[in-house]
Amino acid sequence: GAGVSQSPSNKVTEKGKDVELRCDPISGHTALYWYRQSLGQGLEFLIYFQGNSAPDKSGLPSDRFSAERTGGSVSTLTIQRTQQEDSAVYLCASSSGGIQYFGAGTRLSVL
Amino acid sequence: GQNIDQPTEMTATEGAIVQINCTYQTSGFNGLFWYQQHAGEAPTFLSYNVLDGLEEKGRFSSFLSRSKGYSYLLLKELQMKDSASYLCAVRGTNDYKLSFGAGTTVTVRA
């Protein structure tokens, strides 16, 4: 597609439920990133995929968070047993060089 | 680690100039980026500086001083559509991920 696509755009869930967030990167981009944007705070790095290399998971806040990238394209971020502090906008970006291009994000609300 | 500071809010008048400062303290440096983000939308790339000096792109310019750990984004001939959040981000040496400041919300008034 023309840009990075994320779905759903909004997700409301109950505390304790699992959620899956999807990211479709720009076609041909080998690098994919997930960030979290909380109110009043800067974007926080979560995880990075580059080609077939092992992902950098150093930013994942807890073992409830995991991510996959299938076929070097689409990525899914999974949050298990959601907590209220997980409420944020989750942004995906892709790049083929230095500049990262972002999707519009998924706004997650945990009630 | 990275520590990136920028003002929280700025207000300016349509047609005027606004300068958004960003200071950083990093364990390594491999470029500074500015993004624009309208509410509920994706951050969009504005500029990239890796060497000292001024980069000009139409109404937007970005400046970098590596020795001072300092950058600014200059917005000229402000338009109402420039009302948005402006994000300063730093990439560390041998590092691919970006570290972001909290963003500066610019409000343009008529």
Q: What is the compact description of this entry?
A:
Chain A is mainly beta.
Give me the number of helical elements of chain A: 0
Query: Helix amount of chain B, in percent?
Result: under 10%
List unreliable stretches of 5+ residues of chain B. Answer: none
Q: Name the pair of protein chains with the most residues at their interface, and give those residue counts.
A: A-B, 24 and 22 residues
End-to-end separation of chain A in angstroms reads: 33 Å
- Quantity of strands of chain B, as a count: 11
Q: Summarize model confidence as the mean pLDDT of chain B.
A: 94
Strand % of chain B is over 45%
Give, in order, the helices and strands of chain B. Answer: EEEEEEEEEEE
Written as H for each helix and E for each strand, in order along the chain, the element string of chain A is EEEEEEEEEE
Shape by Cα distribution of chain B: globular
Alpha carbon gap, first and last residue of chain B: 40 Å
Low-confidence stretches of chain A: none
Radius of gyration of chain A: 13 Å
Which structural class do the helices and strands of chain A define?
A: mainly beta
Gyration radius from CA atoms of chain B, angstroms: 13 Å
Quaternary organisation: heterodimer
Shape of chain A: globular
